[in-house]
Amino acid sequence: xxxxxxxxxxxxxxxxxxxxxxxxxxxxxxxxxxxxxxxxxxxxxxxxxxxxxxxxxxxxxxxxxxxxxxxxxxxxxxxxxxxxxxxxxxxxxxxxxxxxxxxxxxxxxxxxxxxxxxxxxxxxxxxxxxxxxxxxxxxxxxxxxxxxxxxxxxxxxxxxxxxxxxxxxxxxxxxxxxxxxxxxxxxxxxxxxxxxxxxxxxxxxxxxxxxxxxxxxxxxxxxxxxxxxxxxxxxxxxxxxxxxxxxxxxxxxxxxxxxxxxxxxxxxxxxxxxxxxxxxxxxxxxxxxxxxxxxxxxxxxxxxxxxxxxxxxxxxxxxxxxxxxxxxxxxxxxxxxxxxxxxxx
Length: 345
Ligand SMILES: [Zn+2]
Ligand SMILES: [Zn+2]
Known about the structure:
CATH architecture of the largest domain: 4-Layer Sandwich
Helix content: 25-40%
Bound molecules: zinc ion
Strand content: 15-25%
Shape: elongated
Largest sheet: 7 strands, mixed
Strand order of the largest sheet: 2-3-4-5-6-7-8
Number of domains: 2
């Protein structure tokens, strides 16, 4: 374990599946997929698998399926809990449903709509009928049907020892959930420091509710839909005790406080950059976007223009709601300026 509390598996599995405990594991890929495996009550030789997200695309889902076949002689995927409807989280749904027709795809009501109507992702980020360049698998997963709408605090008790609990984490997206998996048994991947204590081990799959150090070093302005809720959900993650924290993209953590601080720093700095942009007079949102991109050395391409541009508009909404900025129209342009309270600071 290092000072940043980043956890690494001592002997990472070649298959990609690494186990925290005998029943809870993770498939490491561009989008980490959570795995909970329990014995079937009817047939002890059969493993029943619950996935948290299904991977970014069909090719990754196929790799996960092959990895599961190496791990278990007989298994069935019972449920996929999609944390949210972004393509990189539900991109394997369709593949797994084809292999296991009786599997149940679960999501909250608002995320169900995006999983079933995939144009929503680029339409929300673009704010209109998206350009054809945005209608690609990176933004739009293969369409799949959500079988079961779950509440954002749904609990699945799999047996006396294993439980899956959804934790509401809105903000990055509409009604995203994180998933806290608790199971009894020894820790398999213990690089010292984690003890099973009373025999219960928890693994918190935090979805895109908190961004890893590695990801923030590359993307200082990650996609956020509702900044206020994102901040609240960051606190929820910080205040949820767990032995392991597994964000969807990048490293695994054993302690979350330092990462929480880094995420908050990113939010506050982005807010501050927008306020700085308006110090020398009102600007349109596209002028603010150029200021923010120049200051952060971000070369604008199509994807950044849409994703950072959309996130910037969400920051603008948040600063407006907290009365730090206000809008007016001049020469048929919508201009943003500092409100009198923030301009006097
Ligand atoms: Zn996402
Ligand atoms: Zn993601």
